[in-house]
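Quick one: structure tokens for this chain, please?
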Amino acid sequence: MKKVLIANRGEIAIRILRACKLLGLGTVAVFSDADRHALHVRWADEAYHLGPSMATQSYLNMHRIIAVAQKSGVDAIHPGYGFLSENARFARAVHDAGMIFIGPSPESIELMGNKSHARQFVSHLDIPTISGSSGVVNSSDEALAVAQKVGFPLLIKASAGGGGRGLRIVHTVDDLARQFTAAQREAHGVFGDASVYLEKFLDRPRHVEVQILGDGKGAARALGERECSLQRRHQKLVEEAPCTALDDRQRARLWDSAVRIGSSVNYQGLGTVEFLVKGRDYFFVEMNTRIQVEHPVTEWVTGLDLVKEQLLIAAEWQCLSDIDWSIRGHAIECRINAENPDKDFMPSPGTVQNLTLPGGPGIRIDSALHEGSLIPPYYDSLIAKISSWGNTRHEALQRMSIALEEFLCQGVKTTAPYLRELLRRQDVKDGTVDTQMLTRLNEERRVNESRIL
């Protein structure tokens, strides 16, 4: 492997470029009309235009990406996260074109990328899953039968979904048919697959995920876990490593379950196995067959360069047994989105002005921002990730709070002020969080604002 095409944009494209350069690999960037002057285009050895700004005509155009890869003579394609990263057809097309797909096999993506299939597969490994449908539910009548069995509230979830898309919470029979249709419609629009399944809705669990690395030959290792309970509309805003709510026995059980899943599907590269934790119990939720947005917190506490490890495994330049690591300290990541918290987090595209990025000991910035950056309306609103490290969780929180105070990005609205307020809360400082906490806080905020008006 000598040359890699990065089939992505923004901060993850920059992150992959840096890892490739560290290993002496040539780099090829791709870009849409909106990203013609983006940082990843300027930093790569070569850059090629994909098409118009809409993702469907550029970053999701797998045939165009394969053509560029062949034209530029690359040996491998790294998909990053989002876009085509969990598309088995794309992974197969890369292999068929004689190149390395830096990620798992198409078969692993097909099995674990479909949430309902993954649930069925994992249940056969005697790993706990949340009660729900045995597979895809095709009609509201079938949904009603499942609801009568497992009870309300329940979740309708897109089989091909992720990031909270194609997901609905249903509290009553009267609301079931409408929400079922809405979930199918959104799933088809976002993923091109309208299939959904049902799960029992858990009240106030924690979201804990385990990072694994597999060699594609049946061996896998756990590289720690992350606490990801602070979510808004099922999208993570703050992530930590390690999870302070787990004791050694719980941690060992989660790690073992994640490794068994990875080994059972001959998983290759980085993957994340997600669980919901309620008291002493835990339940498999899904597996993300790609690198995660929140990988920096795992890198902080393990000392590993996960993208480098991903490249080394893909090129077969390293064995899993060669990787040496241990948990040290605590790390926190905050996602900065170009959104307006005062207008229900509406996207805030525009041109970046007066940019000041924080720094200092224990602070890391993952971003493609610079003054004059265009934040287009066509893609995910994530514009920067701030991560902090400390010997203790308290120190990591303090460093993060200072970094959020230093962060300045004018020209667009961002979630930084919202995150600053959030980290000041005593329950967040104490770590007593759950997946529904921000929903409750935002509802209280709306009620209070309506009273003032």
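The longest strand covers residues 220-232.
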